[in-house]
Amino acid sequence: MIFVSKTLFEEYGSIPFWVKRNCLVSNFGQKNEDKIKYIVFIDGDMGVVNPLHRLEEYLPKNEEEILFYDRMFNNEIMAGSYIIRNNLYTRNFINYFANYEYKIPKTTSHYNDNVALQAVFLDLVGSTKYPKQYKHCLHIFSNATTFEQNMIFVSCIRYILNLLNEEPNNPDYHTYDKGKIKILRKLSPKRWARDTWLYHWLFCEDDFMLHGWKKDEIASHPKIFLTEFNPTESLCKSSNFLEAWNYNLSAKVSCKEINENFMGWVQMTYINHLNDLNLSKVLFVK
């Protein structure tokens, strides 16, 4: 795990935070290409809730190079975490993502990477195949000033990405560039993280990481852990490492219970997607 010092971060000047962190990932990967085979990028408010899972379960396999995942509560591709092989192909993707800062309309800049990532994907996997629809979506983006308008743009882009999906019937992935790029679907068991608030800060055995563990949020919600997570190196390397996760037993529930809740989120986001798609009018572009 790499912790970035404030001094190193400041070397990138006044560019937005999300640009800095992606630049750091790419540059660090390039400098350590001979040492590091994979990069698992996670937001600072993500944490391992179930250490019985291993990172190896989620690493790219076979032809896979880049893995992202769908957010559960809307139609965005999650920008705050990804897993890549450390090579020129993947670093070019991350560099393009970082440089997209200069293409984001000023009116929508405060929505930053979560919205821009959708356009990044389309640019890199096939923006020329549906040029009229692509230009239509970008027009929406250039005039978006509210969260709702940005979500219309997201649905517009995801519509085109769905047309480009190489495995539309795969229940686990959206697949692009001959399998090199995959976006894990909302209910995919391959998904390594999710937002913790989706189900009252509870978790089950299938969960690996949770997103949203900000200090103020932790203070205002029921605690998953009974004591502060502060393990020693010797404990982490011992067979008793699980003792570091001193759970509140009531925070762990059945996966059936959580998955039933997730189905509600999936249905809601699909309805919202259809509504936003209709508002985008991209379906009428020929």
Could you explain how this protein is built, in words?
With 286 residues, this protein is α/β, with parallel strands linked by helices. The protein has a single domain (2-189, 269-284), classed as Spore Coat Polysaccharide Biosynthesis Protein SpsA, Chain A. Helix content is 39%, strand content 11%. The protein contains nine helices and eight strands. It has helices at 6-10, 17-31, 88-99, 112-125, 131-143, 147-164, 215-219, 233-236, 255-280; strands spanning 38-42, 46-48, 66-69, 81-85, 173-176, 181-184, 193-195, 209-211. Strand 5 (173-176) and strand 6 (181-184) form a beta hairpin. The relative contact order is 0.14. Pfam families: DUF273. This is Glycosyltransferase.
List the helices and strands and how they pair.
Blueprint: H1 6-10, H2 17-31, E1 38-42, E2 46-48, E3 66-69, E4 81-85, H3 88-99, H4 112-125, H5 131-143, H6 147-164, E5 173-176, E6 181-184, E7 193-195, E8 209-211, H7 215-219, H8 233-236, H9 255-280
Parallel strand pairs: 3-6, 7-8
Antiparallel strand pairs: 1-4, 2-8, 3-4, 5-6
Organism: Strongyloides stercoralis
Pfam family, one: DUF273
InterPro entries: DUF273 (IPR004988), Nucleotide-diphossugar_trans (IPR029044)
